[in-house]
Amino acid sequence: MHALPHDHTGARIKRLRQERHLTQRALSDLSQVPYSTLTKTEQGVLPASPHVIASLARAMRVEVASITGQPYLTELRADELDVLIRPIRESLDVYDLGADPDIAPRAQQLLHDDAQELLVIVRAGDIKRAAGQVAGLIQEVTTAAHTADTTESWLLLASTYRTAYDVAAKLGFGDLAAIALSRMDWAAQRGSDAVVGGMYRYMRALTYLRDGQYRTGERLVTLGLSTLEQADAGRERDVVTGQLHLGAAVMAGRAQDKSRADVHLDQAAEIASITGEAADVHWLSFGPTNVAVHRVSVAAELDQYEDAARVGRSIAMPRGWPASRRSHHHAELARAQMWTGDLDAAFANLLAARKAAPQQARHHATVRETYSGLEAAKRQLPDSFLSYGSWLGA
Predict the structure, then answer these.
(1) What pTM does this model have?
(2) CB 357 within 8 A of CB 322
């Protein structure tokens, strides 16, 4: 029995195609997705790669989320996360109303400490805790920023908006993530910080990456690099510059442009050789390890799964590396191993992704697609595999 019999990705693709009165051949021609890939994906025999999903979404003029099924509302309700989204939306809506007379903000240092703690909590994979705290902090810091009107207070507000973006993006609320980013840019401009401005453009580029709009994403990367040239030279600027190159590398990989992806990876590697591991600089996890992890992602995007699996197996993540990044890497490695036929190793990495950051893994599109692909491999599945599907909400 298929784990997602009624609403797996292939079924959604078929439904959307039929709503647009397209034959499989017509959609294949429009999207440039091979006919055999499309038919097997619709049947649930073949998991859909991000490149295939983005290509089909563009061809049918729908959002990527319409195909992936994100956000996974049933699971969000089960985890009691859905009720936390509305307060975040409301906190983002009051950005320009000035100080709230009913809020007496605490001292700047206490607010700063709370904002930093939320960034750490997200990277530890505790999305529910972050989602439950960020709305109240945004409202308090909004009043503090309007009252003090200092560089520090505006940049602190930008940090809280960034956490709202992190939460929304990880839970699959793309529209809310976009709003949080626009608020982050609004606050960063008032704080006049070029590094934060570069980070904003990096994160905005990722939203276009997820939507399959690579050209716009690349333009944002270019703009981000230009913005960073206005910042003071130093490790902070280097880290954000390197992270922009990593984002651009994945974008190029998903656009099937290997040469451009390699250029960005090499530039990021050169910067990482200077910065070293810098996981705590703006909590971007930049450094040699993140460059290696992105080489796995890029190889997988280019359908070079053997290379992705080989590089992925050789990565030793440093002690204290953020759980959210470890979980994401295990999910990417599992996808590559599934495509190479190493199904046991793929499932082991799905388990590792869940162990590192269970809340993130449960709502991670790559985890779900890889599970679906393993389940469709027509093999005897252990009880632990089936229970994993139950945990995902299958």
Answers:
(1) 0.88
(2) no
